[in-house]
UniProtKB/TrEMBL annotation:
This is Peptidase M23. Its main location: other. InterPro entries: Cell_wall_metabolism_enzyme, Csd3_N2, Dup_hybrid_motif, M23ase_b-sheet_dom, NMB0315-like_N. Residues 153-275 form the Csd3-like second N-terminal domain. It is found in: Cell envelope. One of its GO terms (biological process) is proteolysis. It comes from Seongchinamella unica. Residues 62-127 form the DD-carboxypeptidase/endopeptidase Mpg-like N-terminal domain. It comes from the Bacteria. Its cofactor is Zn(2+). Residues 287-381 form the M23ase beta-sheet core domain. GO terms for cellular component: cell envelope. One of its GO terms (molecular function) is metal ion binding.
Length: 434
């Protein structure tokens, strides 16, 4: 009986809608044989062949509740017609019950009762891939985690820069997430705020996740290349023999550098490093020992490298600020933040969101003021990378395995590049004839 309940739960979690009911099987009809007339045999009482066949009880519909902002379990159970006693039983009696404490707006919690109105099942749809089913069995609630595996499909895209990386990515059909992933991969060698030029080309091979024949989510970038003013940068995703995954160029050199060239996304430089600039508010010659990135309020700000937050606070001039120490030599500073996402003393990793762009303090508009100090001296964030430590390479013993792993991928990437070059050459020839 327990096995039948679990199977039914699976069907409910992913097949039946809240209003559907399983159709009962038709009762089995048994024909009675005619007994011979024999006075010596006492006639047996007739057998009611339908008495042992029980009609399956009609399953009650599910009552679905969508988690709202500010909700808690008590409120959700109450809306569904249940009390804190039911909450306590589901949470404490089942294996996955504590997971109900971690609910988020937009998720669905569904309830099912028996014909007397008593709670017998709860279904927590965490996302399209995970559902937790709670069911009353033998007087106690048990639970089961139901997981779906999406289908992985490989895809590719090419783009030509006409105005910005973001626009080129959109025109190539790439999602915001994939564009940002590519920018992060090349973030240590290309400043996507200042380096891209019209005519630059990009090529990507990436995964997409499908569910029920429709795209569900973005997968990982498998390989990518970016041609910036005639110089091509290439990156391949590779998991080494120790199980560590990263992106490396064709020579096995890590694409992850000590620092990002730009700590924000999809922005433009509004004011470059300038030791003699006139301050826009104070109207006096004050050194501008950093770079300003104009961006809408709320734009994520990333830690330029691994390190520890040595200061995080507010001042009249800097507004909300974060200072990060990287090793013994380097410090990065992030000023005028709308919100801080880290605290003093906290360890941070490269590309971790440490705050959002704002206009707090002495600022004329929303922007990030970014400074880079080396041994206590301000340096131009856009040029200092040439003096930074070299990137790590794969061990010599790992290189044969790496080259074998990327052989097919590099050929596919080269084909994409050739196709783009041919298309651009034909377009230029057409323009010349015109």
């Amino acid at each position: 009986m327990a096995a039948a309940v679990v199977v039914g739960c699976l069907a409910i979690g992913f097949g039946l809608s809240s209003g559907e009911k399983p159709q009962p099987e038709e009762p089995l009809v048994i024909e009675q044989e005619a007994f011979p007339s024999n006075a010596e045999l006492a006639p047996e009482p007739p057998v009611d062949t339908f008495a042992a066949v029980t009609e399956p009880a009609a399953e009650q519909p599910w009552n679905e509740q969508v988690v709202r902002s500010g909700d808690n379990l008590s409120l959700i159970f109450k809306r569904a017609g249940y009390n804190d006693r039911h909450v306590h039983r589901v949470v404490t009696e089942s294996e996955h019950g504590k997971g109900l404490a971690r609910i988020y707006p937009g998720q669905t919690i569904a309830f099912q009762s028996d014909d007397k109105g008593e709670l017998v099942a709860v279904r927590h749809v965490k996302d399209k891939l995970q559902t937790v089913s709670y069911r009353l069995e033998d007087g106690h609630f048990s639970s089961q985690l139901l997981t779906r595996e999406p289908e992985l499909r490989e895809s590719s895209a090419t783009g030509v820069i006409t105005s910005s990386l973001f626009m080129a990515g959109q025109e190539a059909g790439l999602s915001h997430t994939t564009i940002m992933d590519m920018a992060n991969i090349f973030g240590g060698v290309i400043d996507f705020v200042g380096d891209p030029r019209k005519g630059d080309t990009m090529h990507l091979m990436f995964e997409e996740l499908y569910l029920d024949g429709e795209k569900f989510d973005d997968g990982e970038i498998i390989a990518a290349s970016y041609n910036n003013q005639g110089k091509t940068f290439t990156a391949y995703r590779y998991t080494d023999s120790n199980g560590e995954t990263g992106y490396y160029n064709e020579d096995g050199v890590s694409m992850r550098k000590a620092f990002l060239l730009a700590p924000v996304d999809f922005t433009r430089i509004s004011s470059n490093f300038n030791p003699r600039r006139i301050h826009p508010i104070y109207k006096t010659a004050r050194p501008h020992r950093g770079t300003d990135y104009a961006a809408p309020t709320g734009t994520p700000v990333y830690a330029a490298g691994d390190g520890r937050v040595i200061q995080a606070g507010y001042s009249r001039a800097n507004g909300n600020y974060v200072f990060i120490q990287h090793g013994e030599q380097f410090v990065t500073r992030y000023l005028h933040l709308h919100k801080r996402r880290v605290k003093q003393g906290q360890r941070v990793s490269q590309s971790q969101v440490i705050g959002t762009v704002g206009s707090t303090g002495a600022a004329t508009g929303p922007h990030l003021h970014y400074e880079f100090l080396m041994n206590g001296v301000h340096r131009n964030p856009r040029t200092i990378h040439k003096q930074l430590p070299k990137a790590k390479s794969l061990a010599a013993s790992e290189l044969p395995r790496f080259r074998q792993a990327i052989t097919g991928i590099s050929a596919q990437l080269a084909a994409l590049q050739q196709e783009t070059d041919t298309r651009l050459a034909m377009a230029n020839a057409s323009e010349d004839r015109g």
